[in-house]
Fold each of these.
Amino acid sequence: MIYRPMYVERIMAYVDTPLIKILTGIRRCGKSTILKMIMQKLKDERKIPAERILSYRFDSMEYEDMTAKQIYDEIKSRLAKERTYLFLDEVQEISGWEKIVNSLSSDYDVDIYVTGSNSRMMSSEISTYLTGRYVSFRIYTLSFKEYLAFRSAYGTAGSPKEELANYIRLGGFPATHLREYSPDEIYTIVRDIYNSTIFSDIVKRHGVRKPDQLERIVKFTFGNVGNIFSAKSVSDYLKAERRTIDNETVYGYLEKLEKAYLLHRCHRYDLQGKAIMKTQEKFYLADTSLRYAVLGYNSDTLAASLENIVYLELCRRNYEVCIGKAAGGEIDFVASRQNEKIYVQVTQGIFDEKTERREYDRLLEIRDGYPKYVLSTDDFAGGNYNGIKTMHVVDFLLSDEY
């Protein structure tokens, strides 16, 4: 296992607190492995004996026909006399899982960790089931730093700047980097993740009657990553294919894709009015490889994928991320975290004066003193432009300073 300290250390800070620890995220992003890392730390660092650590994986056939009460009784029968550490993987597969967790937490001396990967594990759902008694951790696919660690351990890694192109195309699902897979082999794995998510977490769970309609919306959304989005644009796209759909249905499908963790919704923020705007959002993918696995590779999409990667990295670092609407145009990302804020522009390169003005002038309009960045893939990216820090995307992704 490649250690993922970004998550493990955050979660370990809550060991032995009365809060249920919930790990959420898209299928195959590494939640189960992170649970194993926490179990190992409890054994090695906290000296917790193995009999006080119980682990269940509920996507196993072993539990398919068991009721919530039967599972509760099974777990109860194995609890130690001292505090027991419970690890419940893919718990959303059990109808009534929240009652199991609530009862165990209330009735016994337990420290509980659970994972889930669909709408029943969204924050809005969890807050209904476990009011005020949990802390959640969003798990993402591999960061660029983690990707490089996997490449070094299981394959042959080039320089970080050489590997950036591979990371954009091949993404960061951990399972795709456990050995030297070809791009076709990687996309086969990613398509399997995509198909199982669409079928199990959306079509089957929500009783979607027109899966072909859903798939068309998915392909439109995947093909327009980083573009301002409206339901009308989807409707127009489907009309061109001689299919009709109303705006409410479009947004319903998008919400389901979001709840299955395939998509991230990024709101626009009015920098002058200091308010979130409720129209013309953007959507980003849980992993850039999804786009290429579903739609095929197209070099014209690299700029959007680069933006997607920066967005995910900001989310991994616990920023709340919005698109900034300024008087002079759009700021790619306004990222806030407690009392911190940064502004980020992303571009493949600054090749002429017009591009330079576009990327820098919008940031120069903002005079609140928070750090501002322009990120590019130029080999000579670096330096300072009137207080705006220019960085290569690789340096930004690997930096610990923000």
Amino acid sequence: MIEGMRAATAALVGALCGAGWFGSLEPSMQFLCRDSGLECVIGLFLLVIPALVIIWGAVGWGLLRLARISPAWPTALVGTAGAVVLLFVSTFVLRFLQVRLPEDGGVFVVAFAAAGGYALAAAVTAGYRGRRDRTEHSGQDG
């Protein structure tokens, strides 16, 4: 039950971060690409997109810390990586199946991919508690 809540909370954080990332992509493109050209494409793929992934990954870490999901940093790191992989896979599958989405449908694809990545990361990192110094109580009385 608690693991399900953990995954659901992480999925919500991932969906928010994915939608935020997608929403911040267009203003960043307009700022960088005032005129079309090769420098726009190179700057977009080498600078803007990775920077936004890092920024929204940090936002995801902060939201996971706020939601008291422990440990937050592996969940945010694995969730961001998983979201990127799921986004590439889902984009490839949608193009292969020739699915036509509405004009604003991209935000939903990114949000669902990020939600899936963060939910999977929460499930994978659920048993990880970080390094222990063996001073914790092991459950015996006495």
